[in-house]
Structures are given as C-alpha cells and as structure tokens.
Amino acid sequence: MNKFNPEYIITMKDIVQEGSAILRKKTEEVKIPVSHEDKDALLCMLQYLKNSQDPNISKKYKLRPGSGLSANQIGLDKRMFAALFEEREKKNEVMMINPKIISHSLNMIYLPQGEGCLSVEREVNGFVPRYERIKVKAFDITGKEVIYKFKGYGSIVIQHEIDHLNGIMFYDRINTENPYKLPDNVEIESLK
Question: What is the side-by-side order of every strand in the sheet holding 133-139?
Fold first, then answer.
C-alpha cells in the first residue's frame, strides 16, 4: 500500500537527503498504463510543490520551497517527477513519466545564484551549465505520450529533475577546480 495517497501531505521528513543510495541510481521505468498508485504519488509530489510555494502552508509545515520533485527524492525507485514553476507570469504545472530529452539547443544558460535542491540541505556554490532549450518526450499522468518544449528557467528545472532520475546531482555538473568556470567553446549566458 502506497502511503502517498491524495490525503497524504509530503513534508521535509519524506524528502531523501544526499548520501542516500536511491539518489545515485538510475530509476526504474514506470509501467504504462499508469497505476493508481503512481498517479497518487505524482499528485502528492505536485501538491508538495504547491504547498512549498505557499508562504502560509510552507511556514506551517516547515517546507523548503521547491520547483521540482522527483520520485526518488521521496524514496520511490520510479522514473517520474513533478515540476511547478513560473515563467513569464504563467504558472507551469508538469508531471512527467519516463521522460527523455530528445533534442536540445547548443547554447547554454545557468542561474547566477546557482541551483538548489530539496535533497541538499547545505549551500553549494557554483554555476550549473544547462541547455537553454530542450524538447522532452514523456508520458503524462493519464499515460498519453506527449512532447514538451521548455526554454529558460523551465528548461533548467526539467533538466535538474531528469538528472535526478539518472542518479545525477546538480553539483556533479559544477566545475570541480573552479566552481564559477563555465564550459569553453559553447555559447553560455546567465539567466537574468
């Protein structure tokens, strides 16, 4: 029985922290059609993001704000995640199952303040280079195959979550010798 049902509220105690083995393994593909259990878990993950971005609820439950949450971050070995982010005044709500980046731009971007992660409680400084635009093939919560396009901040969030599903942490992408060194021979700019 899955504890992640519609009544369950994910809090920080459910979030797996760095050092845990599940964050370092490639997650298992989700079976299609999507089971009720997987749908419930995805909706629970999306609800966490909504709660975490609501000042009153996040304070009440002591939630760290997040833009994305992957299944392995709540201890599930499943290739799926939820994301909730604002871009150009528009809220984007995404739930993806078995996502694959099928194409990306050559030029890259990074967040000037660096990236954060719900599974990393410490501050990590450095630039994380990401593709500016990506095209992703995935299944939605109904089990329908969908092609998504993202650019800018949304592209960063989605790449961060897909990395999670592949056992990659954001700081694996920071230059180890010089955290603020950006890749050579590629057009890269800071996301305002």
Answer: 68-70, 80-87, 90-104, 133-139, 145-151
Give the pLDDT score at 116: 96
For 89-125, write each residue's pLDDT tens digit: 889 999 999 999 999 999 999 999 999 999 999 999 9
pLDDT of 192: 74
Number of separate domains in the chain: 1
**Across-strand partners of 129?**
none
Task: Average the pLDDT over 111-140 and give the result.
Answer: 96
Q: Do residues 99 and 79 touch, judged by C-beta distance below 8 A?
A: yes
Beta strands 108-110; 188-190: pairing state: parallel
**CATH number for the domain that contains residue 123:** 3.90.45.10
Catalytic residues: 161
List the Cα angle 93/98/102 in 5-degree steps: 90
User: What span, in angstroms and rounded, lies between the C-alpha atoms of 145 and 96?
Assistant: 10
For residue 4, is it within any domain?
no
Rounded Cα distance between 98 and 109, Å, is 25
